[in-house]
Amino acid sequence: xxxxxxxxxxxxxxxxxxxxxxxxxxxxxxxxxxxxxxxxxxxxxxxxxxxxxxxxxxxxxxxxxxxxxxxxxxxxxxxxxxxxxxxxxxxxxxxxxxxxxxxxxxxxxxxxxxxxxxxxxxxxxxxxxxxxxxxxxxxxxxxxxxxxxxxxxxxxxxxxxxxxxxxxxxxxxxxxxxxxxxxxxxxxxxxxxxxxxxxxxxxxxxxxxxxxxxxxxxxxxxxxxxxxxxxxxxxxxxxxxxxxxxxxxxxxxxxxxxxxxxxxxxxxxxxxxxxxxxxxxxxxxxxxxxxxxxxxxxxxxxxxxxxxxxxxxxxxxxxxxxxxxxxxxxxxxxxxxxxxxxxxxxxxxxxxxxxxxxxxxxxxxxxxxxxxxxxxxxxxxxxxxxxxxxxxxxxxxxxxxxxxxxxxxxxxxxxxxxxxxxxxxxxxxxxxxxxxxxxxxxxxxxxxxxxxxxxxxxxxxxxxxxxxxxx
Length: 471
Description:
Blueprint: H1 12-34, E1 58-64, H2 78-82, E2 110-113, E3 118-121, H3 125-128, E4 134-141, H4 147-156, H5 166-174, E5 184-187, E6 211-213, H6 235-256, H7 260-275, H8 279-283, H9 290-295, H10 304-318, E7 323-328, H11 338-362, E8 369-374, E9 378-384, E10 389-393, E11 397-403, E12 410-412, E13 414-415, E14 422-424, E15 427-428, H12 429-439, E16 449-451, E17 454-456
Parallel strand pairs: 1-7, 1-8, 4-12, 4-15, 5-6, 5-7
Antiparallel strand pairs: 2-3, 4-11, 8-11, 9-10, 13-14, 16-17
Helix pairs in contact: 6-7, 10-11
């Protein structure tokens, strides 16, 4: 048998480098096929058509980090008062975050609000005045009793894996209306309990991740968009610098094949450049009238911080930003001092939230802006501490929606007599997400992205649209 001395034309390293380019092209192909309307790689935030006629064009999410108690806010339970101090007559959850004692009546009275007569506690007198704008969902339930997992499920649909946030999914599906601003903005977001993962785009292209303004560790009046001013650099010189950098990056892409991270970086440079012309004016509230500032509670010690967040949210909504989140962090976790803690927290947000609803309505924005209020879970009707606290409860809690095509002045679903479990028209977190997407004109089962050989979506393989919410 003859033997030949064979020298390959390519080394193993060359082969891997060349084939890696093909892998990148395959990935790009999946990316472009994932959306109903292909994404323009040069302008990924360009507005895209909805699956059907939307009820809302944008979302403002008011996140109450820590978990307000549903039986002390929007879910009136007279039986709880009648049986105060007695053992809970049913079975407590098999898995509990911590042990609790006997039933604890709410220390607040509930009163009807507006023509609808929705029962809302004295914690929220200003929001109660806007009761006819609200659709309260009293039967929300989720899967995780710890803050970290619960925050991730609220924001991303999964309590165990890194997934894109709801704001990222919305901007991926729809793009945004103003190309000089990000499509997804989060104001003073929490840095704990998942942190950046709660506004991350995960495996979606980087253009769809949230842009933070400040963080929960600083006051909103001190929160800034970093590097928004060009300083002393002339616009023409800055444009030349960016064009040179873009040219170098594109040469690298041409040489080595698609690179989603690098393409995202290029897009972020271009967006940051465009933002310089518009963002400074949006975040500057000095031109607002005295009456508007007072409406949001700006200038008052208790309400100034969250009031500024809500006012910024309205200003970004006016400019066409697709998803804006305001975070009241991290204050609602009352395992003890329930009366003192919930009183303080509600006084900080009640007036600003009502002011936001009122301001949106008078400007004609509420009809196509979906306002979403809620938290990662609720609290138990049973007591902790020295009978002055409540534990985490993912089995039943309340959220409300306003504007954007919801049935206003209504309540959906119900909990048991004591508010421990959702029992009627139960709405899982996947159902809530499906409903929010529906109001935005997106079919949750069609909004998919292929990653790692599988189609992913915000609602995973579950979720139903809660028709009772939709007008």
